Amino acid sequence: MTVCDVVIIGAGPYGLSAAAHLRTIKGLDVRVFGQPMSFWAQHMPVGMLLRSNWTATQIADPNYELTLEAYQAASGAHFSMPVPLDRFIDYGLWYQRQVAPDVDRRNVIRVEAHRKGFRITLDDGETLLARRVVTATGIGSFVRRPAEFRDLPKEVATHSSEHQEFSKFSGKSVLIIGGGQSALESAALLHESGAQVEVISRQSHINWLGGWASKTLHHRLGKFTRNLLYAPTDVGPAGISQLVARPDLFKLLPRAVQDRLRKRAVRPAGARWLVNRLQNVPIRLSRSVVSVSVGARVKTLLDDGSERTVDHIVLGTGYRVDIDKYQFLAPELLESIDRFNGFPRLKPGLETSVPGLHILGAPAAWSFGPLMQFVSGAGYASRSLLRCIGGSVQTEPERVEPSLAVARP
User: Fold this and answer.
1) DSSP per-residue codes, 222-286
2) In the chain, what are the domains?
């Protein structure tokens, strides 16, 4: 059976960044499995623009060389803010070719505990052993469908992540549920595709980011003061942004304070550049759906007693982390992971209570703060992982089997 030191599951920004950092450790055998940038390519709509700023859209690498600027120079692509989805995907694939050209595109279907670490089973039946496993599979497993929509067939109700394009809704009526970026941008794209769209949100107002007031404030602050208040990771408002950008400091705060700051940093919001695109799209605030019934069309009853009868409902309701939804982790392995409300409790190196099993990305948010929910968090996650595994390699005594040089801590 093939044996390696580290298996990384997932080839998106977190998995690729982790591979780039770990491969700086001489002699460490790191394997990466998954389709590069697949979630971005398959679960986000054509025409989408990224909400994050330029620096926060970079995928971290150990030498700070694989930047958007470097990609533009290498590819001849020219674009600015906001970054188009197709350019970001292409940037991710370019990054992958630099750091992990040997990505194995087979899927990992099972991870089980083994006396030498973990037994990995691939979709073609092949198995291998790894001393450590790094899970970086993104948020695709955590789609949130509120209870009132959970049992509806996909013919009448879908999550925003289930659409790559919206042209099939031209001439049809669509109800959007939600008030964050995915809901609002889906509404804009649907409207531009010729659909009749209405947005229903529980929020009392839409939080618009990057507006005139924000730009004026940034101008008055000056570059030095602005940099003191806002971290380049671009998560959270003034002041909070710098704290969120330092997970080792953030996690020292009392849990109640962490929870308040997390809500403040990642509240539902839309990019200001959507405002003009939504001028002709009705947005109903402080409203929620009470019940849904399906006939020839789908009928919704709102809490104010009004009804909407439409052809389709799109749920821009985000994601809710629950690692029980990791179907590739064996049940007995899942049971061994200490967790809180679906989030794993992680140690330094984003390591779970199961030695040698690491989880990167959104599931790390409970332990290390909201930065882990964004591409810009990959830098911290990868550096922390590198310190953990690199330190283990340096203190490991010589072994007969060099491919098993990384021991559990």
Assistant:
1) HHHHHHHH--TT--SSTTHHHHHT-HHHHTTS-HHHHHHHHHHHS---EEGGGTGGGTTS-EE-S
2) 2-142+320-404 (3.50.50.60), 147-207+269-315 (3.50.50.60), 208-265 (no CATH)
